[in-house]
Specification:
Helices cover about 40% and strands about 20% of the residues. It has helices spanning about 10-20, 60, 70-75, 100-125, 155, 160-180, 190-215, 225-235, and strands at about 5-10, 30-35, 50-55, 130-135, 140-145, 185-190, 220, 240-245, 255-259. Strands 1-3-2 form a three-stranded antiparallel β-sheet, covered by helices on one side. Strands 4-5-6 form a three-stranded mixed β-sheet, sandwiched between helices. Strands 7-9-8 form a three-stranded antiparallel β-sheet. The chain is globular. The N and C termini lie close together (about 5 Å).
């Protein structure tokens, strides 16, 4: 069983934050509104709303009452951008494709849009870099590589990937502004994200096996939402353990426990 906590200005925003981390849609989860830590009551004015979102097992998810689902819920995919229209998933996802072939074409269009934007940005920065869309392991990347005259793109990665995260947010905003769609493209520089992903998966699997053996929970290092989702997905493949998130960004982390 997987569960995460989310917070925001209202239940919908808090649920969106948790759904983004789980990579789930509203009809796949159960939601519990948590009391405010200072007052003991949910929804206190001036305090963020906190929720606990728990994945249902597949049987529960399939038997959910269709009459309770909104059109936005039914159309929702696995994206990670919170909605802005007050629903559990934004109406901007309604045109996302269901067919696998259409999905690849849709991702290609988004990747081309992000690539064009980055090329214009790097030209304005006078930064020699090559931009290349790449579909790999179910993820559409836009890879950035150093040009012949500059082999160091560390400025685009930053400390612990902070600059790259900012670049990702800009690309996401551009796609949403121009198309009204959630951006499903991941920006990577010199394979930083791919290497980081492999490291995270390896550490998460090792920690999960230790939890299996000892029964003692393990808290991983703080990670951003993208990296926490990698952990949730990786550990979700191991029986007998479960993941949850705790803390507030930028110190939010995944905890692995026996299930």
């Amino acid at each position: 069983m997987r569960e995460v906590e989310g917070s925001g200005e209202g239940v919908d925003e808090a649920v969106d934050a948790a759904l983004a981390e789980l990579g789930a849609s509203r009809d796949e989860v159960d939601v519990e509104v948590l009391p405010d830590g200072r007052s003991g009551a949910p929804g206190v004015e001036g305090a963020p709303t906190r929720v606990r979102v728990t994945m249902r097992d597949s049987a529960d998810a399939e038997s959910a009452d269709d009459s309770m689902r909104s059109p936005a819920d039914s159309a929702a995919g696995d994206g990670d951008e919170p909605s802005t229209d007050g629903s559990a998933r934004g109406s901007d996802v309604g045109d996302e494709p269901d067919d696998e072939g259409d999905n690849e074409e849709w991702l290609d269009d988004q990747a081309d849009l992000v690539a064009d934007f980055l090329e214009d940005l790097f030209d304005a920065m006078d930064l020699p870099a090559e931009v290349e869309p790449l579909y790999e392991d179910g993820t559409m990347y836009v890879d950035v590589w150093a040009g012949e005259d500059d082999e160091n793109l560390g400025i685009l990665i930053g400390r612990h990937g902070a600059a790259l995260d900012a670049l990702q947010e800009i690309a996401r905003t551009v796609v949403h502004h121009r198309t009204g769609e959630r951006c499903q493209v991941v920006v990577d520089v010199e394979d930083y994200r791919k290497r980081r992903r492999a490291q995270i998966v390896s550490r998460a699997m090792q920690a999960a096996r230790r939890v299996q053996e000892t029964g003692r929970p393990e808290r991983l290092d703080p990670m951003n939402a993208y990296e926490r989702k990698i952990v949730h997905d990786a550990v979700g493949e191991i029986s007998g353990v479960a993941t949850a998130s705790e803390g507030e960004d930028p110190d939010r982390r995944v905890v692995i426990r026996r299930s």
